[in-house]
Amino acid sequence: MKIFIDSADVTELKALAATGLVDGVTTNPSLVAKSGRNFFESLKEICAAIPGPISAEVVAQDAETMLAEGRKLRKVADNIVVKLPLTPDGLKACKVLEDEGTPTNVTLCFSAVQALLAAKAGATFISPFLGRLDDGGQDGMELIREIRTIYDIYDYRTQVLAASIRSANHVRDAALAGADCATIPVAVFKSLYKHHLTDAGLEAFLKDWKATGQSIL
Ligand code: G3P
Q1: Are 16 and 40 in contact (CB under 8 A)?
Q2: Of 13, 58, 83, 112, which is least packed with CB atoms within 10 Å of its CB?
């Protein structure tokens, strides 16, 4: 499963790029606002730091302006993916951009039939928001499973990008459900390394090694 980081914080993203485990980045208007930085400047730096797909979202509501915004965003770097909302205009723009060779990420997906429409529009990625469904008392992971099933039945190439991830268990369950990618907040990414038995085991190994009085280097 590809791991994307859900952030527009350039400093954090550059640091995580050094892990060698980050396959891409997703941003959205709220994350850009939180960063407090110029959108285009940040995008340039993120695209240079991480070679994988970098999602940049349009803010227009009509297809024509979405296309203009998407084409401008795509000029920032070759690894830009244009992120579009799951609306009739968003899917119209999706089809045109994909036909032009620009990859798209259709966002704000909350149902399997929405995901079906995005696949028919030729989206490269579909972003089901599982955490927000869970917040509303629904089962977000069930949506990932439904989309996986539909895409496999009809052999759609659209990649399932599990979004609105809130915990390491979300990452595990999205992987088990067959999501192609998960976009993960920085804190959740860092938590993926953690297990108390890893810490305890390492401590014991180091103590025993020290007692031998030897060194490797
Ligand atoms: O990038 C979209 C998505 O991951 C947002 O997540 O936590 O705002 O629901 P959240």
Answers
A1: no
A2: 112
